[in-house]
Amino acid sequence: MLDRTRSVLAKSGAVGADAPGAQGLMLVRAWPTGAAYAWETRDQRLRRATVSDSVVGERACATRPLDPPVHPDRGVSGVATLFGNGWGRLFAADHQEVTAATCGDAPLEVRRVGTLADGSRTLYAVWFPDYTRGTIGLSLLHDGVTSETRFRLGDAGDRTCGEAA
Fold first, then answer.
1. At a CB cut-off of 8 Å and minimum separation 6, what does 95 contact?
2. Model confidence over 41-100: pLDDT tens digits?
3. How far does CA 69 lie from the centroid of its chain?
4. Which of 10, 56, 102, 121 is deepest in the core (most CB within 10 A)?
């Protein structure tokens, strides 16, 4: 399935000025009938798409390079909301690594998608069965020092991630 979705995307959604830069297509999430991808163009615009085995569905692109801007020190920024076999949030950690995530008191799977912005930004994704509101907790690592922060998911949905106890 992944070979097919990559091929569909490479032929119709990731071409010309919108083609991937050196890091190529980065898998955000795969499911039995498709996949979500992100990539950085040569001029450092972030693009994303969801793809079935025969068609590019949702497709979006930043209009400016490095949008949102890379934090000069460290920071976490929301990048996109993705739909496909559930609901996902794509976010960036600048100059640091996400080591764990929680939804309320429960561990939450966080996927490292890839590195952008000449190595200063790493994309991560979390996925839920449906719209989910509230915040998730993130454990971060930078130069051997750990820290904690909250990342806001949004306001839509019946499912809620609350504050960690």
1. 71, 73, 74, 75, 120, 142
2. 999 999 998 888 788 887 888 888 888 889 888 999 999 888 888 899 999 999 999 999
3. 15
4. 121
